[in-house]
Amino acid sequence: MPETTLLSIGEVINLLRDDFPDVSVSKIRFLESQGLIDPDRSGGGYRQFDSTDVARLRFILQQQRDHFLPLKVIKSKLTLWERGEEVSGADSDAQNPLDVAGEPLDRAELLKRSKLDEGQLGELIDIGLIQPIRDSVVFPPEAGIVAMEAKRLMDQGLEARHLRTIKLSSEREADLLNQLAAPLLRATNPESKARAKDVLEQGSDSVLAMHRALLTAELRQHLRT
């Protein structure tokens, strides 16, 4: 690809899809919102990706696919990648996703990041999709992702009440995994607690992979009807 060639987000997806079938417009937008990529914009406001942007995006997606690294760790590795230094895949210091990662968000920051209005955020709180941290007025870091994705779905025509099924599904899956870890969680020694966290993390990876596969299969059936 010539150095001066600029690609649209759709062209980038087509370029990467063979290696990364799950790449999508929303995924690229999310990576941008997290500060991992920063494509230029055309005069009309459309994203424009050069060869460096595409290579950077390919590196990020590869780290996610091959090493299951959280974005915080990938972001730290990007500094080495930008310098042209060798980057190892696995990272023994990678933070467990079940550990608290990131700062809590107050209401103003949550609205700013997601572009929800006050009424929409209130509806999402009412149905339990977004909830403040217990006994506080701030929200967990994950609320930012939930709010942004809920906004995208609502912009496409869904109402907040329609999204409650997502909350109910996640609660059922969490209860299922909790059954696996329950004996370990009841123990008081640190080793059992650490093992419980591993069980929940590995179980979460399996559930997420199955969920994505089953959802993809269901949606494919809808396309065929």
Quick take:
It contains nine helices and two strands. With about 220 residues, the chain is an all-alpha fold. It folds into three domains: about 70 residues, Multidrug-efflux Transporter Regulator, Chain: A, Domain 2, CATH 1.10.1660.10; about 55 residues, no CATH class; about 60 residues, no CATH class.
Blueprint of the fold:
Blueprint: H1 9-16, H2 25-33, E1 40-41, E2 47-48, H3 51-67, H4 71-82, H5 107-114, H6 118-126, H7 142-155, H8 164-186, H9 190-224
Antiparallel strand pairs: 1-2
Helix pairs in contact: 3-4, 5-7, 8-9
Describe this structure in words.
- With 225 residues, the chain is mainly α.
- The protein has three domains: 9-82, Multidrug-efflux Transporter Regulator, Chain: A, Domain 2; 107-161, no CATH class; 164-224, no CATH class.
- It is 60% helix and 2% strand.
- The protein contains nine helices and two strands, in the order H-H-E-E-H-H-H-H-H-H-H.
- The protein has helices at residues 9-16, 25-33, 51-67, 71-82, 107-114, 118-126, 142-155, 164-186, 190-224; strands at 40-41, 47-48.
- Strand 1 and strand 2 (47-48) form a beta hairpin.
- Helix 3 (51-67) crosses helix 4, helix 5 packs across helix 7 (142-155) and helix 8 (164-186) packs antiparallel against helix 9 (190-224).
- The longest helix has 35 residues, at 190-224.
- 14% of the residues are buried.
- The model has no long low-confidence stretch (mean pLDDT 86).
